[in-house]
Amino acid sequence: MDAAAKPTDFLGGDITCDRYSSQFLLISLKVISHVIDAAAKPPADFLDGDITWLGDYEECLAIHSNLTEDTAIAPFDGEYCLVGIPIPAKVIPNPLAAASQYLVRLGVCVPDGCSENDTLILLNTVLSKIPNNTMLAASVQCQDPDRKFDTRATVVIVIVSLFMTVMVIGTVYDVLYLQWPKSKAQTMAGLLNGEVTEIYHHKITAEEDTPLIGDKTTQEYKPGTFGKILLSFSVYTNGAKILSTNQSAGSLTSVNGIRFISMSWVILGHTYAFLSPLADNQLPFTILMFKRWTFGAILNALVSVDTFFTLSGLLLTYLIMKEMKKKDGKINWFMFYFHRFWRLTPPYMLVLMVYVSLFPYIGSGPLWKKDGMEVNYCKDAWYYNFLYVNNFVNLKDTGSQCMAWTWYLANDMQFFVISPLIILPLFFSKAIGGIVMFVFLLGSWIATGVISKTYNMKPSLVAGGDFFSYFDYYYIKPYCRIGPYLVGMFTGYVLYKTNCKCRINRYINLFVWIVAAGLAIIILYGLYDEINGHPMSVDVAALYNTVHRTLWGACVCWVIFACATGNGGYVNTILSWKAFVPLSRLTYCAYLIHPIIMYYFSNVQKRLLHFSDLTVMYLFLPNMCLSYAAAFIASLAFESPMMGLEKVIFRRGEKKD
To answer: CA-CA distance, 228 to 645, in Å (whole number)?
Structure first.
C-alpha cells in the first residue's frame, strides 16, 4: 500500500469500516495477532497448484474486541470472508483447466462492520500496488453463521412438518386397523389349526393341506376413501413396497442392475467433479488423472446419462405396446401424460422447495454459500423446472441454473411428450413407424453435426474448448440428445414383437457381445489423445459428437435384448440380482438428491483434503450410501404417497366385482 494512501481513500464510504481500518493499529496486540493468524497465507506448494487458502474460519469468528481492551474504537467481532481471484488461463497447463474459471481463493478476517464491497475495494487497492501484478479480486463472500430463518424457510418447515404428521397418522392407522388385525388373525388361525389337528387328527378325514380354521377368522377391514388417503402416506406399507424384491411377470429384470450401476457411475463422476475444489492439489491431481488412460471411464461418465435415456425409451415403448395390444390400440392419453407428470413432479418440486428454502441454513464454513448454491436463481426461475423446459435456459446468459443437473429430467419429459408421434404409427405399421423414427434420428444427427461444427466444439466437456457453447447449445438440448432414446424405443418394439423370445446362434451371440463391448470401450477410452494434446479436427469431433451417444445407446440395448431373450448368460444373472430391485426403485430420488449431499459435504469443510484415488473412494462410497438413504426417505415422504393418491383419485388398481 502507498504510504501516502489513507484507508478512507479506498473504502466504499462505510463509516464503521473506515474507522476500523484507519485505527487498526490501535487495536490490542492480542486481537491483531488473532486477526492476522486467522487470515490465509500462501502454502508451501503454491507453485504446484494449491490455490485455495482458507485460513482459520473458527479462529476468526472467535475474535471479540470490546471496549475494555480497545477504548479507542467501538467493539467488533471477527467476520470471515472468502475472496476469489481469477487465474489467467495462459498460466494453467491443461486444456480443461484453461477452459475453466480457476480462482485463487483466500480467506481474510475483517471486522464485522465491513461489508463485502468494502473488503473487495480494500483488497484490490492493496493488490494493485504490487508491481507487475494483473490479478485482482473478483468476488468476496462474507459469512453470517447466525442467520435467522426467513418467511420462505418457515413456510417450508411447516409444509414438511405437515407431511411428517400425515405420515405418522397414516402409519398408525395402517398398523392399528390393517396390519395388526391381519397379523393377529393369521396367528390365531395358525395356532388353532395346529391345536385342532393335534387333538383330532385321528377323527378328521379332511385333506392334509386344508386348514381346519380359515385365515379370515374376522371380517377383513376395508378402508374408505379417507382411509385410503391416509394409507398412501403409511411408512409401513410404502417401505415394504420399496424394499420388496418382487416384480410383475414379464419384467425386464436386467434393467434394475443397469439402472443402479449407471446411477453409481453418475455419483462417482460427480464425486470427482463436485469435490475436486476441496483438494489442496486440485490442479496437479487433475493433470495426473488426465494422463492415465484408465481414467477414461470417469472422464466419459457423461454417457451414463445416455444409458438412462436409452432405458426410458425402451421401457416406454415395450410397456405401452403391450398395453395397446390388450386394448386394441386404444390408450387414455390424458392418463398417459398425467401419470408421467404426477409420477415425477411432486417429489421433484418438493425436493427443490426444501433445497432452495432450507439449504442455506443447515451449515456453515469458509466455503459455505450463504445463499445456497443456486438459490438466488431458483427463486426467480423455478417455474422453468416445473414446466420441464429448464434445458432451454442457457448457462452463458444467466450464469446459473436451478438444480442444474435436472436438465436430464427436462429432456426425458420432452422425449416422452413427443413419443406418441412414433409409438402410434409404429403400432399400426412398422414400416411407417420405422420411417418416422429414422427421420427423427437423422434430424438429430444433422442438427448435432451442424451445431458442433458451427461452434468448433470439442468432443467432450472435459476436452477443453468453449464450455458454455458445448453445454448450452449441445449437451442439454433435446434435439442433440434424443439418439439413445430412439434406439431404446426401437429395441423396446423388437422385444414386444418377439415377446422376448429370440434364440441366437452361440457364435453370432459371442460376436455381437465382442462388437458391443469393443464399441463401448472405444467410446469410453477413445478420447485419451484428444485430452492429452492431440486434438481431433473439427470435422472428426463433429462426427464423434453426432454418433457416439447413439452408439452407446445401441450397446446398452444389446445388453438388455440379450438378457431378456436368454442370450445374456452370467451378465443376465448379475444384472438380474434381486437386490438391485429396491435400489432401482430409488434411482429417481437418488438422482435428485445426490448433488445436494455433495454440495453440503464440500461446503461445510473447514480444511482442504489431499486428493488421491483412495481419498476419492472414501468420498464416493459414503456419497452413494447417503444419497440412497436420503432417497429412501424422500421416496417415503414425497414419491410413494403421490403414487398412492393417484390410485385413490382415479381408483386405479381396484378390483371390479
So the answer is: 8
